[in-house]
TrEMBL record:
GO biological process: recombinational repair
Keyword Isomerase: yes
Name used for this protein in its record: DNA 3'-5' helicase
Species per Swiss-Prot/TrEMBL record: Candidatus Shapirobacteria bacterium CG09_land_8_20_14_0_10_39_12
SUPFAM superfamilies listed in its UniProt record: P-loop containing nucleoside triphosphate hydrolases
DNA sequence: GGTCACACAGTTTTT
DNA sequence: CTGTGTGACC
C-alpha cells in the first residue's frame, strides 16, 4: 500500500491532474461535494512520496482549526503515519498544516522582535478587544453612547484587513464617524502595545509588515516553504491575499483551492475576487475544474445550478453526478413559524418511524438566523426527537471560562490590563487574595493545572456558583472541562496560545453523543452533508436577509449561501417558508424568497397537498 | 460590593 | 421575545 501510485487510485481525471501537477501556480475550482479536500491532501502526499519533497518544505493553510486537523489526519493516513493529537505536526514528518492565524502567530513569536513585538505577546480575542476599545475611547474622551465600541472595532478590523495602519488611517478617514475612529485607532494600538497584546487582525497584518520590512526574514520563509497549498481561497481577505503573494513570491508554487459560488464570508472581509484575480497575478496559472459531485442527486444539483446561475459577478461551475436523478425538491408553504416547525417534525417522524432506514443523525435543519432556532428546538423537545444545536456561545467565550483565563493570562503577563479589569470586577477581596497569591507563587514552577486549581482555591471563585442551580452546575462543568484542557498543556504559555487560537471540541455532554437531528445556520453548514436537509424561513427579508437587499453584491452573497445550503443535501431537499411569522416578537407577512422562484418549477413538488386533511 | 431593574438591540462567524 | 449590559440603590 505504500506504492506511490496508490495515491492516484480512486481519483477522477481532473483530480489526478491536480494531484500530479508539477511546479507553478495552480488553481483548483472545486464545486461542493467534488472532493476538494481529497485533491488537496492527495496533492501534498504526492509531492512528498512521488516527487520526494521534504514535508518541511510544504505549507498547508486553512481557515479553521477543524479543517487543518482534518487535513493532518488525512495526510497522515495517506503517508502511513501514526499521529496523535499531542505530537501532531511537530512530528516533523508531516507538513505544517494550520490556520493563517496560527501560522502567523508562530512567525511573530520567532521573528516579531524585528517589529518590537515581544515573543511572549498575548493574543486578544473579541471580548478583550472590546475592553481595549473602551479604554481607548475613554482616553480620547469619546462617549460609548455616541459611537458603539463594537462598530468602532469593526471599522478598525476592516482597516487592518485592508492593511491600513493606525498612522495611515487618518488620511483615509471621511466623515464624523471615521474621524473618531481614526483617533481611537491610534490610542487602541498604543494600548495593545502597552499590554503586549496583538488582536487577531494584527497577527496577519504584522506578519505582512514584517515581510515587507525585513526582506531577509521573508526570504527565510520563502526558502522554507517551496510549496504553499491553500484551502477555501475564496475566503481570503486582503491581508491573507497579500501574505500569500509574499510567501509564494519566489517559487510561484501556489496551489489554491476554492469556489466563488461558495463565498459567504464577505461580511467579515473575505473577497472572492482574490480567487478570480489569480489569473492576473500569475499569467501561467493552471486552472482545473472539479465539477463531478459525489454527494447529491442530479435533481438537487440541477436545481442548485439553475438557481446560482442568476449570479453574474462570478464564474459558476456546472456540477454533475453519476448518482441517480433522485427525488424532486419539496416545497412547503407554512401558515406560521409554528406550522413550519410542525411540518418538519411530521416529515422527520415519517422517515424515522415509518421506515427503518433512517437515524436522527441523517437530518439537518438549516436557517438563516440563530433567532429561528428556538421555535424549532421547542418542537423537537415536544416531539422527543433528539436534536443538536450547532453554534451558540463558544466554549472560550463563556463567562466562567473567561474569568478563569483572565487569572491565568494576568499571571502570564501582568501587562494584560484587560485581564486585570476582569478579575477586578469579580470582587476586590478576591483580587487582593489573588495578588498576594501571585507574589508568593511566582518562583514556584507550577503546571497550568496546579496554577488553575490554586487560583480557584485561594480566590474562592467557585463559591460564586451553586451546585443545586442548573445553570451554575453547567458552568462548573465547563470549568471542569477547562481543567482537562489544562492537563494537556503543562506549560502556561502553550496553554494560553492554544486557548487563543484553537476552539475546544465541544460539548462532550451526554445528549450530544446520541444520534441527533442537527439544527444550525446555513453558514455553519458549510462543509457538511446530510441525507435529508430542510432549509427553512425562505422568505424575502429573512433569506435573503433584509440587511442585504440594498446592493446586488449583498443579494448575490445570500444566493451563494442558499446554494451552499441546497448542496448539503445528499438525497432529499425540503424548502419551507411561512406566510406569517413572529420574529423578535413582531408579526410579519413576507413574500416567498426570490431564490425559491429561481429554481425551475419542474424540479419542485408541493408538499402542502399531501398534508390536507 | 453586590443585587436588581430597566433599557436596548438583535444577520451571518472564525481566528 | 430574550439575552446582555449599564446604572441606581441598598
Amino acid at each position: 500500500m505504500t506504492d506511490n501510485f496508490s495515491i492516484l487510485d480512486h481519483l477522477n481525471p481532473p483530480q489526478q491532474e491536480a494531484v500530479t501537477f508539477g511546479e507553478g501556480p495552480l488553481l483548483i475550482l472545486a464545486g461542493p461535494g467534488s472532493g476538494k479536500t481529497r485533491a488537496l491532501t492527495h496533492r501534498a502526499a504526492y509531492l512528498i512520496k512521488k516527487n520526494k519533497i521534504n514535508p518541511e518544505n510544504i505549507l498547508l493553510l486553512t481557515f479553521t482549526n477543524k479543517a487543518a486537523d482534518e487535513m493532518k489526519e488525512r495526510l497522515a493516513k495517506l503517508l502511513d503515519h501514526q499521529v496523535t493529537k499531542q505530537q501532531s505536526s511537530s512530528a516533523a514528518k508531516l507538513p505544517f498544516a494550520g490556520t493563517f492565524h496560527s501560522f502567523c502567530a508562530r512567525i511573530l513569536r520567532i521573528d516579531g522582535r524585528q517589529l518590537n513585538i515581544p515573543p511572549s505577546f498575548t493574543i486578544y480575542d473579541t471580548t478583550d478587544q472590546r475592553e481595549a476599545i473602551k479604554m481607548a475611547m475613554n482616553e480620547v474622551d469619546i462617549s460609548e453612547k455616541q459611537f458603539k465600541p463594537i462598530a468602532i472595532l469593526k471599522t478598525i478590523s476592516q482597516a487592518k484587513n485592508e492593511l491600513i495602519s493606525a498612522t495611515e488611517y487618518p488620511q483615509y478617514a471621511r466623515g464624523l464617524f471615521q474621524t473618531n475612529v481614526a483617533q481611537i485607532y491610534l490610542v487602541y494600538q498604543k494600548i495593545l502595545k502597552k499590554h503586549q497584546a496583538l488582536d487577531f487582525d494584527d497577527l496577519l497584518f504584522q506578519t505582512v509588515r514584517l515581510f515587507q520590512k525585513e526582506k531577509q526574514i521573508l526570504t527565510k520563509y520563502q526558502n522554507q516553504f517551496h510549496y504553499v497549498l491553500i484551502d477555501e481561497y475564496q475566503d481570503t481577505n486582503q491581508a491573507q491575499y497579500i501574505l500569500t503573494r509574499q510567501l509564494v513570491g519566489k517559487w510561484h508554487n501556489l496551489c489554491a483551492v476554492g469556489d466563488a459560488s461558495q463565498a459567504i464570508y464577505g461580511f467579515r472581509g473575505a473577497n472572492y475576487r482574490n480567487l478570480l484575480s489569480l489569473k492576473n497575478d500569475f499569467p501561467d496559472l493552471k486552472i482545473i475544474n472539479l465539477e463531478q459531485n459525489y454527494r447529491s442527486t442530479q435533481i438537487i444539483l440541477d436545481a442548485a445550478n439553475e438557481m446560482i446561475k442568476k449570479n453574474t459577478n462570478h464564474p459558476i461551475l456546472n456540477l454533475w453526478t453519476q448518482n441517480g436523478k433522485g427525488q424532486l425538491v419539496s416545497l412547503y408553504e407554512a401558515r406560521s413559524e409554528l406550522d413550519e416547525a410542525a411540518f418538519i417534525i411530521k416529515k422527520i417522524g415519517e422517515y424515522l418511524f415509518q421506515t427503518n432506514d433512517f437515524s436522527p443523525a441523517d437530518f439537518a435543519v438549516l436557517y438563516r438566523t440563530n433567532a429561528q432556532s428556538r421555535v424549532l428546538e421547542e418542537a423537537f423537545l415536544h416531539a422527543s426527537i433528539p436534536y443538536r444545536l450547532v453554534g451558540g456561545t463558544r466554549f472560550y467565550e463563556k463567562k466562567e471560562i473567561k474569568d478563569c483565563l483572565a487569572h491565568l493570562k494576568y499571571y502570564a503577563n501582568p501587562q494584560n490590563k484587560v485581564a486585570y479589569k476582569r478579575i477586578e470586577k469579580l470582587g476586590k477581596r478576591r483580587l487582593k487574595k489573588f495578588l498576594i497569591f501571585l507574589k508568593k507563587s511566582k518562583e514556584k514552577n507550577l503546571s497550568t493545572l496546579e496554577l488553575l486549581d490554586k487560583i480557584l482555591k485561594t480566590t474562592g471563585y467557585l463559591d460564586l456558583y451553586d451546585v443545586k442551580n442548573k445553570d451554575d452546575l453547567a458552568r462548573l462543568e465547563n470549568i471542569k472541562e477547562l481543567r482537562s484542557v489544562a492537563t494537556e498543556f503543562l506549560d502556561l504559555t502553550k496553554f494560553l496560545e492554544n486557548v487563543a487560537l484553537f476552539e475546544q471540541e465541544y460539548p462532550t455532554s451526554l445528549e450530544a453523543s446520541l444520534p441527533s437531528v442537527t439544527l444550525m445556520t446555513t453558514h455553519a453548514a458549510k462543509g457538511t452533508e446530510y441525507p435529508i436537509v430542510f432549509i427553512v424561513g425562505l422568505e424575502e427579508g429573512l433569506f435573503p436577509h433584509s440587511r442585504s437587499l440594498l446592493e446586488k453584491e449583498g443579494i448575490e452573497e445570500e444566493r451563494r449561501l442558499f446554494y451552499v445550503g441546497m448542496t448539503r443535501a445528499k438525497r432529499k431537499l425540503y424548502l419551507t417558508y411561512a406566510r406569517r411569522r413572529l420574529y423578535f416578537g413582531q408579526k410579519s407577512t413576507n413574500a416567498i424568497s426570490r431564490f425559491v422562484n429561481d429554481i425551475p418549477s419542474h424540479f419542485i413538488e408541493f408538499a402542502n397537498e399531501n398534508l390536507l386533511e
